[in-house]
Amino acid sequence: MAKGANQKLKLLVLKDILMKHSDEQHGLTVNEIIEKLAAYGINAERKSIYDDLRLLENYGLDICSERTKTVRYYIGERDFELPELKLLVDAVQSSKFITEKKSRELIKKVGALASDYDASKLSRQVFVHNRVKNPNEKIYYAVDTIHEAISSKRQITFCYYEWVLEKDKTSKITKQPRHGGKVYKVSPFSLTWDDENYYLIAFDSEAAEIRHYRVDKMDKVKLTKELCEGKALFKDFDMASYSKSVFGMFGGEMTDVKIRIKNYLVGVVADRFGKDVFVIADGEDYFIFSAKVVLSPQFFGWLFALGDGAELIYPQKAISEYKGYLKKAVSVYE
């Protein structure tokens, strides 16, 4: 391409140069701007640069200047401040849901929102104990299809997988389709994040109830032409309450329980059920709180972790199931 053929792109290229090569600590002189434009095959005179800077400022770009021996120009306020970008990078790095490959791609894109100098500060590793990155790249496309289904109020189909132990010469953990590769068809309502996994909350017409599915275990997710069903069940559905009551998103019977807990464990209760959970004092050292939970090994495991600081006191059915859970655990060591 002949020199100067990109002349009509001058204003756009100038904007990119300022966004990429300048910040509060690194300004550009007019001569440096002219040199960088020349690298794109764009000719520029000093006066035209001043005019272009004014145009970009009128457009809404926060162009600042600093005078030392000469005047340097830089981008001041950006859509995202550096601390905000660092938070985004940390969230991507520490997320089990996002694969290593996708993490690198996302961080590179986040870095493009900062100057080159600040972008280098985003190349940092966040170490999280026992973190295993999900290897499934298909998750992103599944999430996109689910969002489209929720937006258009249409049903989806998919196959659901589970982890099994494959026994051969060297036993290994593999993934196999549930129910012989059965194709599920549900009406998506919402996506939620629990215990570092994505879950789809949906209405299952076949079972006539609300169910949840881990997105990374869903495969061959397809959008159908059929409209969603079960809208009445979601009319008063409270996603926050549902997530609090379903421990680890494992299914089970929803039950109203009462638990007697020592006062020093109030923070544990607030972290799990929120600070607005109903509590009443029980003497000087204890309080009793009521909650709606799914009776599952995950709930019993949470309760057991509180040791002698917590006592399940209602209902009797839940107490009996908890005792059975404890007896099974102890029997392993007898």
Query: How many alpha or pi helices?
Result: 11
Mass-distribution shape? elongated
Into which percent range does the helicity of residues fall? Answer: 25-40%
Task: Report the end-to-end length measured between terminal Cα atoms.
Answer: 82 Å
> Approximately how much beta-strand content do the residues carry?
25-35%
Uncertain spans: 126-130
| Run of helices and strands | HHHEEHHHHEEEEEEHEHEEHEH
Main β-sheet description = 6 strands, antiparallel
What class would the helix/strand composition place it in? alpha+beta
- The number of E-state strands comes to 12
Assembly type of the shown chains? single chain
Radius of gyration: 28 Å
- Mean model confidence by pLDDT: 86
Written account of the structure:
The protein is of the alpha+beta class and 334 residues long. It has helices spanning 10-21, 30-38, 46-59, 82-94, 100-111, 116-119, 139-152, 239-245, 266-273, 297-305, 316-331; strands at residues 63-67, 71-75, 154-166, 172-177, 183-194, 197-204, 209-214, 218-227, 253-262, 279-282, 286-295, 310-314. The longest helix is centred in the last third of the chain and has 16 residues, at 316-331. The radius of gyration is 28 Å and the shape is elongated. The termini are far apart. 16% of the residues are buried. The model is unreliable at 126-130 (pLDDT under 50).
